[in-house]
Automatic annotation (TrEMBL):
Keywords associated with the record: Cytoplasm, Initiation factor, Protein biosynthesis
Pfam families noted in UniProt: IF-2B (PF01008)
GO MF, one annotated term: translation initiation factor activity
Record organism: Monosporascus ibericus
Matching SUPFAM superfamilies: NagB/RpiA/CoA transferase-like
Protein name stated in the entry: Translation initiation factor eIF2B subunit alpha
PANTHER family: TRANSLATION INITIATION FACTOR EIF-2B SUBUNIT ALPHA
UniProt subunit comment: Component of the translation initiation factor 2B (eIF2B) complex which is a heterodecamer of two sets of five different subunits: alpha, beta, gamma, delta and epsilon. Subunits alpha, beta and delta comprise a regulatory subcomplex and subunits epsilon and gamma comprise a catalytic subcomplex. Within the complex, the hexameric regulatory complex resides at the center, with the two heterodimeric catalytic subcomplexes bound on opposite sides.
Principal location class: cytoplasm
Length: 357
């Protein structure tokens, strides 16, 4: 292993931005490949895996080099997608975890910013990277057993979107567990007409489990709400105030549920918790992210033209404030919106063995 002096000299001679190994690596292609290869992999986890792969392709020798690398790769990945929220949360979590690890004492009790201890941390990140994704997938099973006790026989559950956490929860509720008998319930599924494959996947998976499912358009949510016992939704990201950024239409469902005094629950893995603080629907806390949902025009032309068509992203989102949410089903239990403000990184670092990354 080269000395710190040699490392510093190497850094001056071959900075990260000119490293031929990283120049031959395409994080966008890697991210898209990971999503295509694993249908259970969500975007934030794919972003983390892609960042780990980026580290594998570079021989950085200092903390500053590595941080510069991660910032550059994160920015490149975020700019490649129309909706950067999941990518932002994944890459930000990875960078924060990395920095937190650098503050821990190394094997020689020195700071990990020393060259030798930095290498230990870097190798640990690479060695345990895959474990993060595996742990995240297991989180859905934990969430399922947390949430199933809120479902009773003969309940009608309303849900929306393609959340894998919600899908797993509803499927596990049909099974017996530790002497707890299976639930017999119905589901009203609000169909997203722009994503027929996703809708069909969720509906068919539940019907295979023996669940009676009714599908409705989003325009029928108010009509159907009086028949609902619980609303259970997923999340793309959970804000620091306990609010939720999720599929467009989530806020509308929350408003209607509130008007009918129906409890609304959100199933979300803790790695979706972030430090964002949305101000309103147009200011979600992600600089530069604009959905262009509303396009005002003044024209004498008759009918709708191509210029009138919404230029919004293919997966638009909205923000649901915490006061509309009864509780969160997470891999750390049933949490109130007020409780989700704690940082997920505190949980990760406190675990002594088999840590993600």
């Amino acid at each position: 292993m080269p000395s710190a002096v040699d490392a510093s000299a190497s850094s001056r001679e071959l900075p990260i931005r000119n490293n031929p190994d990283i120049e031959s690596f395409d994080i966008v292609d890697t991210y898209n490949r990971l999503l295509a290869e694993d249908p259970d992999l969500i975007k934030s986890l794919a972003a983390i895996e892609a960042m780990i792969e980026a580290l594998r392709h570079v021989s950085s020798t200092t903390v500053h080099e590595t941080m510069d690398l991660m910032k550059a790769q994160s920015a490149k990945l975020q700019s490649s997608v129309t909706n950067p929220i999941a990518v932002y949360h994944g890459t930000d979590l990875f960078q924060q975890y990395f920095l937190k690890q650098l503050k821990q004492p190394g094997p020689d009790r020195e700071t990990t910013s020393s060259h030798r201890n930095f290498e230990v941390v870097r190798e640990q990140l690479l060695r345990n990277g895959t474990a993060f994704v595996q742990k995240a997938k297991r989180a859905r099973e934990t969430i399922a057993w947390v949430g199933r006790r809120f479902i009773r026989d003969n309940y009608t559950i309303l849900t929306h979107g393609g959340s894998r956490a919600v899908g797993t929860l509803l499927e596990r509720a049909t099974e017996s567990h530790g002497g707890d008998p299976p639930r017999r319930f119905n589901v009203i599924y609000v169909v997203d007409e722009t994503k027929p494959t996703e809708s069909n996947r969720m509906v068919e998976a539940l019907r295979i489990k023996g669940v009676k499912v009714a599908t409705i358009p989003v325009s029928a949510v108010a009509y159907a709400m009086e028949k609902v016992n619980r609303v259970i939704l997923g999340a793309e990201a959970v804000a620091s105030n306990g609010g939720v950024i999720s599929r467009m239409g989530t806020y509308q469902i929350a408003l209607i549920a509130k008007a009918y005094n129906k409890e609304l629950f959100v199933a979300a893995e803790q790695y979706k918790f972030g430090d964002t603080f949305p101000e309103n629907q147009s200011r979600l806390g992600f600089p530069g992210f604009k959905q262009n949902i509303i396009n005002f025009r003044s024209s004498r032309s008759q009918g709708q033209t191509s210029e009138d068509t919404c230029q919004c992203p293919s997966d638009p989102v909205d923000y649901t404030p915490p006061e509309f949410i009864t509780s969160f089903f997470t891999d750390q239990g049933d949490l109130t919106p007020q409780a989700v403000a704690r940082n997920i990184l505190d949980f990760i670092v406190d675990k002594p063995v088999d840590l993600p990354m």
